[in-house]
Amino acid sequence: MAEQNEGIQTVQNPDVVQKYQMAAELSNHGARILDLCALGDKSIEDGVKNLFAKAKNISKGIAFPTCVSVNHIICHFSPLSSDPEGSDVLKNGDLAKIQLGAQIDGYASIVATTIVVGASKDKPVKGKLADVITAAHLASEAALRLVKPGLSNNKVTETIQKIAKSFDTNSVEGNHLKLLSECERNDIEGKKQIILNPNEAQKRDFETVQFGENEVYGIDILISTGEGKPSSVRTTVYKKTGNTYSLKIKTSRLIFNEISQKFGTFPFPLRALEDEKKARLGIAECASHALVTPYDVYQGKEVLLTKNGSIKITNTFYDPEIVQSDKKVEDEEILSLLATNATEEKKDETETADE
């Protein structure tokens, strides 16, 4: 029985792959919802209701709350009713960063994308906006091809930095901005992690990562035309850390209990808590004692590592006819890499799912 349960945890098991891909389909569908974060969350909740309906004790729902961050707001923004930015209306030309995720039986898939509102083939995106979107897209495509069993993180980080420089952009530096995070059941941030643009402390703390078969990684790319550091805005998305501490304030204890019961180990928005005022008060003590961790913005794709290569299970909406940068990658090694298929087909191997 122990061996059987252990096998279910890896992507060798078709049922696990199915759960990841079904969650990804919901995420991609939900990513089209721009007007209201709450509607995005409801879309995921409604979408998972009938999946594995006959199975017992399978959790289903939101793996990452719907976030819509517009223009200068570059952090994960899932607004509270008291946030004035929450009532802003998207306008043509706005740069919107959208992120959300679904989970089935603890297997999560998170998708993020960047769009320019109103852009089309007749009204393409140009200039700095096109540069930063194209750089992020190509960086994620390159990472997808470099995250393979037997390889390590060094080449991935180096390639991402080169692509960013090709478009006169920078990768964003921050404590919670990771290029790669190993995803496990009930945990979107596993033990293996790579910081995209590490500071000195992170360079000391994070070791070389070796990719292995049957692992799942979230590839998170955040590119900026500025100095590459996120601006400060109020944090509204958190995640339990697993640490313990005896909270002193009654409101904090009530809020933490609600978090534990409703969200488990997955990220959540403060707006999803029953009492917003109490949530804002209670979360402060929880965060100060590391019972929860805050989230910054990032863009993501997810990858399953199998013997045949990498499987991309979430999609973004990049279209080179709509996003037209006048810059390009000229590094021959990177161009050759981007021209390859992320999934390498091998004979006599079990067939894997396509994008």
Task: Kindly summarize this structure in a few lines.
By secondary structure, this protein is an alpha+beta fold.
Protein topology:
Layout: H1 2-8, H2 14-30, H3 37-48, E1 60-70, E2 95-104, E3 107-116, H4 127-146, H5 153-166, E4 170-171, E5 178-183, E6 193-195, H6 200-205, E7 216-221, E8 223-224, E9 237-240, H7 250-263, E10 268-269, H8 276-288, E11 292-294, E12 299-306, E13 309-312, H9 332-338
Antiparallel strand pairs: 1-2, 2-3, 4-8, 5-6, 5-7, 7-12, 9-10, 9-11, 12-13
Helix pairs in contact: 2-3, 4-5, 7-8
Family: Belongs to the peptidase M24 family.
Pfam family, one: Peptidase_M24
Protein name: 841_t:CDS:1
Write up what this structure looks like.
- This protein is α+β, with helices and mostly antiparallel strands and 355 residues long.
- Helices cover 31% and strands 20% of the residues.
- The protein has 9 helices and 13 strands.
- It has helices at 2-8, 14-30, 37-48, 127-146, 153-166, 200-205, 250-263, 276-288, 332-338, and strands at 60-70, 95-104, 107-116, 170-171, 178-183, 193-195, 216-221, 223-224, 237-240, 268-269, 292-294, 299-306, 309-312.
- A 5-stranded antiparallel β-sheet has the order 6-5-7-12-13. Strands 1-2-3 form a 3-stranded antiparallel β-sheet, covered by helices on one side. A 3-stranded antiparallel β-sheet has the order 10-9-11.
- Helix 7 crosses helix 8.
- Mean pLDDT is 76; it is low at 1-9, 29-34 and 346-355.
- Belongs to the peptidase M24 family.
- This is 841_t:CDS:1.
